[in-house]
Amino acid sequence: MIKSISALIGLSISMCVYSQKPVSTIYSDFGGFWQSTTSPAIPNNNHNLLAFTWDADGSGTVYSPITYSTGVNDAVLNTNGVAFQAGTFISLPIYNIPNPGSNTFIGVGQALGGNGNVSPVPVNNNLVEYLSDGLNGLGLGTAIFNIPQGSSISLNTMGIVPSSIGDGIPDLIFTQMGEPSGANDTFYFTDASNNVIGNTYSVAFNSVPVIGNACWKFYNANTTPPSYNSSISSNCSRAIRVLAADWSEFGITSANYSQAIKLVQTFSGTSDLAFIGAYNEESITFAASINGSVYNDNNGGIPDGNAYQGATVKLFNNGTEIRSTVTDVNGFYYFDNINTNTYQGPYSVTLTVPSGFAVVGNKNGTTSNSLNVNLANSSSSGNNFGINRPPVAVNDNYSVPKNTPKTFNILANDYDFNSGLLVTSSVNLVPPSGASSVVSQSGAVKSFSVSGQGSWSVDNSGLLTFTPENNFFNNASVVNYTVKDNAGLTSNIASINIAVDYCFKPGIGGTPDTYTSVGISTLSQRYRNWPEGPELNQGGVPNGFLALNSTNKGMVITRVANTGLISQPQKGMILYDISAQCVKLYDGNTWKCIKRSCND
Fold first, then answer.
1. Residue-wise pLDDT tens digits, 173-222
2. Cβ-count burial of 222 within 10 angstroms (0-12 exposed, 13-18 middle, 19+ buried)?
3. What are the chain's domains?
């Protein structure tokens, strides 16, 4: 308890509220070129900070207002006649921010993805993305609104440049994109033991002059996925405020600058940031950071979709692994505090692809699980991967009547994971051995024939038509196939099994015209006139040649070398003809093989 009180007293003693030096004008590339104080347009989509105008001593007389470029696109400034002092400003290498509260929102330009509430939702739960996007991380078209009060972030530095202290050139800039309260945001440096170095820079952003407006729509940041907030979005206009500061305003001097190794920011609860802050690369060096996300991406291409938690990502320096991490609940990963003096690169990150998944896209537009990383500005963000599971094709079993074409939807029982879509036109048939007349389309087999059986053909809807050859009946050759999903992944091989059935005409109704004349029975009780009848109630069996009647006995048919050996055949006789390899029936004139077929 005493230690806690001492810490608070120490902090209050070191806190000084200076007369902050606000930025009076900003320039961006909205619509090609936008100046906050003169352009009539109100930004409502993504744009980047190109330059800002700042007076180092405010209303003092030592310095005059100067416009400083950020290095994003000096050519646009030149084209539009803006006089500026060239510089390079880079967003602070943020890699983790406090969890969102119920009043925390992701703000994006009202027109992003289409005006108002659009589908698909154009944002995700990786809040860091909206504080580090844009060129040099200086995107002004996205922001996080109302970061929870009392939460904080800290960033490790690799050294303040002493000549930049008190030189009248801005070292840090901060944005406020909404309607702040009178609560203070605070910024300060600490040493290795977390002692405050210099002063705490404290600012209530509602006292900072408004220099422009932007039009936003808002998504609840504490829902997954973020949900559109129509009430907050009904009034899209929000004020823009920007501050710039010199190290001297933090109490940094030539005597203590070397101890300032960590920058800490504590939020007021109404902090509305386009980026956490941006630093002048001539004034300080931050330890490098690398971040990205892994998505369960069911459409391939640019990585997006649902966050994938628990994927392993490794960081390599000149081919040697130096770090390993796993993605969080938002699919986000980061490597912070990379000492570029110790590890001088080149750098790369490699995703360990989870079992059963495949890479369907990455930041570079390929399907590699490895990305080369450029740390020219001490940070590299958006090193994203999209992964997905291939679709599942399930075996199909069908029956087809003899001499009758039939069509089936072979994709009806197939499916894709993560609500993915099967590309019906991608079905690729795998013809059996001996197939002919093979026709392909875009590299996929669409039709073929098998002599003696029939033809197979699949259309772009995934409908397969089998046309049996005339009088063919049996199991057709097994045909395999694959199908792709919307992410471009190919399914397992599934089989199509088709049986061409024997067919029979419906029985003829009415009075039978003949009855069976030969019967074999092992039963002691039966109709006296069985099987000849002539009526059914007298035991007649209509329209037969041979009637068998037994509960537990079988019949052995006489075998002969050939039926020509039977000198006195009788109508209705049945024999197995060894030479003809069939059971034959004598119809009174000739012996005929009994074959299973349609009774045409």
1. 999 999 998 889 999 999 999 999 999 999 999 999 999 999 999 999 99
2. middle
3. 2-286 (no CATH), 289-388 (2.60.40.10), 396-501 (2.60.40.10), 518-593 (no CATH)
